[in-house]
Amino acid sequence: MGHLQLWLPVLAGLAGILAQEDLYRKVFVFRKDPSDAYVVLRTRLEQPLHNFTVCLRSYTDLSRPHSLFSYATKAQDNEILLFKPKPEEYRFYVGGKFVTYRVPEGRRDWEHVCASWESATGIAEFWLNGKPWPRKGLQRGYTVGATAAILLGQEQDSFGGGFDLYNSFSGELTDVYLWDTGLSPDKMRAAFLSLRLPPALLTWKSLSYEVKGDVVVKPRLREALGT
Ligand SMILES: [Ca+2]
């Protein structure tokens, strides 16, 4: 027992070191507008995707078009893309095609989005702040390529590049996840509420990433207790 008590703080210390890429309650701040900065996300994806869900939370006062999540393959730069052409519209691309979701213009608050797609039906779900939008469909039977450049902050027009600075993101991004499945409604809501989530290809609590340019990791500012 004595030995165990002695070791616990040591183990906790090691866990602290290993958890360096845990971004829980942290955000990426994209400071410039327009910006050439971006963040590369790394994941080990071995097979093409027949289903996926991508979720993230953003905070910006941009009114110009901007990219939120850009997943390009060598064959298709808009393989998966979450794009906001204007404050009251989201575009969700799969394999170069897109569906549009009209949303209320934000109250200049954080917006949480999840978008999912399944090949078998082509059904695309879009959830904003824990609420599902009417489902749409695209790219039935398509498969999403596994060899991808996954970027936050810029919209790719070629594999890992081809940026338009006036489509860059400026503001704060957090809680970025990618799953190789569709999420159940319960898990969609759990993502919005920052509750426990299933294992993912990209996990905010264990993110492999590389910052390119003017992006800073900071604690998230909490507006009020309990939010
Ligand atoms: Ca593009």
From TrEMBL:
Its cofactor is Ca(2+). GO terms for biological process: acute-phase response; innate immune response. Pfam families: Pentaxin (PF00354). Keywords: Acute phase, Calcium, Disulfide bond, Metal-binding, Secreted, Signal. Coiled coil: none annotated. Homopentamer. Pentaxin (or pentraxin) have a discoid arrangement of 5 non-covalently bound subunits. Residues 1-19 form the signal peptide. Disulfide bonds join C55-C114. This is Pentraxin family member. Belongs to the pentraxin family. It is found in: Secreted. One of its GO terms (molecular function) is complement component C1q complex binding. InterPro entries: ConA-like_dom_sf, Pentaxin_CS, Pentraxin_domain, PTX_dom. Binds 2 calcium ions per subunit. GO terms for cellular component: extracellular space. Residues 24-223 form the Pentraxin (PTX) domain. PANTHER family: C-REACTIVE PROTEIN, C-REACTIVE PROTEIN-RELATED.
